[in-house]
C-alpha cells in the first residue's frame, strides 16, 4: 500500500474500531505468484491481535490457510468524495477521502463450529428472535467449510483525510461533512476531527 507519512496512522484503538465497524473485508493471498482474493466477514480478536473468518473448502484461499501461508485482510472504512467547491482557497482539484486498514500475518485453520456459532451470535445480536445454529445441520455442512485465523504481525492504517490541505480548506470540508445528510460523510467529519489536519497533522508526523 502506498502510504505517505502524512496519512499513516498508528492509533491502535482507532484502527481496531474501523476494523470492527467494517467487518466485511477483502482477504488477499498469493498462489503460484498470482493474487488470490476473497471477500469475507471477519472477527477481530485481541491479546494477541488476530482475525478470524471462514471460506468454502473449494475456495483456493483454503489451500493457503491449510498451508499456513500469509494472508492480508483489507478493511474498508468510511470514504467520501471531496469537491473543490468545498474549499475556501484556489486552485484545488477533486479528491477522495478514505480510511483503510491492512492486517497481515500467517494463517492457520481453526475449529469450524465454534467460529460459526460466534459469528452468527454477533451478527444476530439485538434482534427480537435471533437465528441460532442448528447443531445437526451445522455438523453436516461443517466439512465443506474451512475456518481460519490470521495472527496479525503487521497492521497498517491509511487515513487520507485532507491533512495535506490548508487549515481553512480542511476546516471547510469538516464543516461541509458535519452538516451532510449522508451518514458516511458525517462519520468522515468525526474522523477528521479526531485525527486532526490543516497543519496539526504535519507537526505530528514530522512532515
Can you characterise this structure?
By secondary structure, the chain is α+β, with helices and mostly antiparallel strands. The chain has a single domain, classed as Pnp Oxidase, Chain A. Helix content is 33%, strand content 34%. It contains seven helices and nine strands, in the order E-H-E-E-E-E-H-E-E-H-H-E-E-H-H-H. Strands 1, 2, 3, 4, 5, 6, 7, 8 and 9 form a nine-stranded antiparallel β-sheet that branches. Helix 5 packs antiparallel against helix 6. The C terminus is likely disordered.
Alpha plus pi helix count: 7
Which range best describes the helical content: under 10%, 10-25%, 25-40%, 40-55%, 55-70% or over 70%? 25-40%
Characterize the largest beta sheet: strand count, sense, and whether it forms a barrel: 9 strands, antiparallel
CATH topology: Pnp Oxidase, Chain A
Task: State the separation between the terminal residues, measured CA to CA.
Answer: 19 Å
Element order: H for helix, E for strand? EHEEEEHEEHHEEHHH
* CATH H level, superfamily name: Electron Transport, Fmn-binding Protein, Chain A
Task: Set down the secondary structure blueprint.
Layout lengths: L7 E2 L2 H10 L2 E8 L2 E8 L1 E3 L4 E7 L3 H7 L3 E13 L12 E16 L1 H13 L10 H7 L3 E7 L2 E7 L6 H12 L4 H13 L4 H6 L2
Antiparallel strand pairs: 1-9, 2-3, 2-6, 4-5, 5-8, 6-7, 7-8, 7-9
Helix pairs in contact: 5-6
